[in-house]
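Hello Y.,

Per our agreement to keep a running log of every chain we model this quarter, I'm adding this entry. I've kept the format consistent with earlier entries: sequence first, then predicted structure.
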Amino acid sequence: MDFQAAVKSCILTNYATFSGRASRSEFWFFQLFLLLVNLVAMVIDAAILKSDLGVLATIFSIATLVPNIAVACRRLHDIDKSGWWQLLWLIPLVGMIVLLIWYITKSDVTDNRFGPAAAAAPQPAAA
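Predicted structure for the entry above:
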């Protein structure tokens, strides 16, 4: 999945979809999108709005909170883990390290209890 498809998938198609699976590329491209837009929003806040509060960045972060949690849940499903494991973020450092390792873990290429493999796409018929 490329950058544009990942953003469309997370924002338009699966905004609040917590079921199914998300590939590593979908998850990480969406995280990159969030980072880039937040950086731009912070620059606009500081340069144009002369605000140290980060109003635009905060609004964007709140607006993308649900799809961010949803894609993380689907990413955990892709490695056959429950989305509830995201609560590990509440454990300082250790929880973050465990989740980071899981987020970068290679996808389960077989079907699992959360559905078919995310990377599995219909193959074109041989000529």
